[in-house]
# Entry
Amino acid sequence: MYPYAQKLLLTFVLGCILICINGEYDTNGGQYIAVISSGDVDDFGYNYLINVGRVEMEQNLSISKTLWVPNIVTSDDALAEITELVQNDYRLIISGTFAHASAMRTSAMRYPNVSFVAYTLSTGDLPNLSSASFLNSEFWWAVGVFSSVTSMNNKVGFVHPGYPQGSIQSINAFYSGAKYGNPNAEVYTMYTGAFVAVDRAKGACKELLNRGVGALTGQQDDLTVPRAAMDAGLLGLGVTGYSLKTLYGQAVGASFLRNWTDMLTSFASNGTTKGKVLKSTITGSFKSGAQRLGDKSYLVTDEQWAVVQTAINTIKNRNSAGAYQYLCGDYLSKFDGWNSTTGCLPTQNLTSPFNAIVYPDIIELGSYTVPLIPHPFPNSSKVGIIVSASVLILLPIALIIFTAVMRQHTEIQSGSPFFFWVMLVGSILVYLGVIMWPLAPSVHTCRARVWLPSLGATIAISALITKNLRIFLLFFNPFLFRGKRLSLIYYMPIVLITVVIDVTLLILYSTLGPKGFVTEQAINGLGPYDTRDVCANSPTGNGIIFGILICHLIQLIIGCIISFMLRNVTEKQYNERKSVALAIYVVTFCLAIVSVLIAVTDISNEQIIVFISVALLIANTAMLIIVFGSRVVNIFMKPVEQIIISQAIITGPTKS
# Structure
């Protein structure tokens, strides 16, 4: 083999070896470690601190790169993200929030070759699931002590995520610590439903401040609660594990700090080949130094500070029982089960985050819900549409009266007064349907929005078509009605058939189609707490409406064909080809424009209502003006014309 070829082969083999080596997880590669969190680094709170631990872990272990996965809020989100991480060959996945505990446990069972570290106290017998946690009970006990000692009165407020997310352990511990610091303390709590719920946390803080609390803190991962406290003139308190003094200075009374760096470094360095991490449990505490109290503000007196320091030293000196400090104290003697010898409550059913009971003296104000802001249809648009339709509806009413009075005039007789009246009744229904559109949605108004315009248009257009069909039969079927006086009975079935078809579809729609009205929130241009009642259809209902529109389209096409066939009628008063065609064109144009706007453009529900209402008003009014305008003008221009119908309308044209 040539020397050059030998070098190429050796290079190829070494490259493959290096690729294989780098494909395994070790603490020098790091590309297989992912840390998922419920928030992002910009909260400068709980998630910021976890990321600090991740970055310092890289430095401690000389890891070039780990993956930070922020804003994974729910357990379902965590499961989906973990699945993707495993598919991308991540072999050590760490979660820093209790909200992911269930997803981490499920994933550990699903992927036995991947190592997981969950923020939980219980990992079971899963060999690939380790536990990382802090002693929350001692942490929140100390926070309670600080809050009651520094409170401007005897009232302290506590915002928590709810049950069981913010374990009852933590809430009881806060209460117990508050009573330790001030036996006369009153503890008010309110929950938000999540560790990160900015708007709900703001509202909960406002409610607690309205109750007159003199100190305010909370079990939230961001800085919403301390900001609300400082805005109200109270001392801020850092409880996310990060030093808030670096952001807000002396307005922060103190910060309770947590060290994620040593914990994450320990897990990442406790690995074998290909990412296998030996199962372990690490719990941070005040005694281990993973939890500690930062420097105080000058606004905290030395006497207050001494009480807090003594309390924390008490926890440290209780050894492993320090976690249950919140169960001990004379201030708990009135609760059932208190042991006068030990000075503590029993641990049974009180230490589990899920099975514990809330101390009865805690004043729980319940869940804070952000008030929803309803957005009804704009009143100005509603008034405009209703007034316009109410005024325009007088037009067909006036035309009914006018045609009744002038029914013997040639201009009216040539078009058949009866069919004029039928068409005008349909036009009135369309205007009534327009009035329904801007009204507040209800089961009845939602159905009326479809029924009235559809039925009205069917009656009006079918009457217009039948009237022209009658003229066509008179002039181009000379033997059909020769010598017979024309009766409406020959034509009414045409109108009735179209009405029956439309009514049948409308009954099907009312039975299968509408959901009634639903309340939209945070969609279609609405903010997260904005709501709007809208009419809604099922897919079946939308299909039926589409069928109704097809029927109307067929009517319009038939109308155009008949109008075209009347082009050779020489008697002017009977040749309505142009007016009918123009009326049909206007109706079709309006429907087409509205359909395109709704289907193609991104418009709001209010705009849809306005477009549909305006289109119906324009189409209906234009049809009336086109059909009746010239007749009314001719009647007034020729008032002395003999009021007699042509012989053709009675017997039809005679054959020469």
Confidence is low (pLDDT under 50) at residues 1-30, 481-485, 640-656.
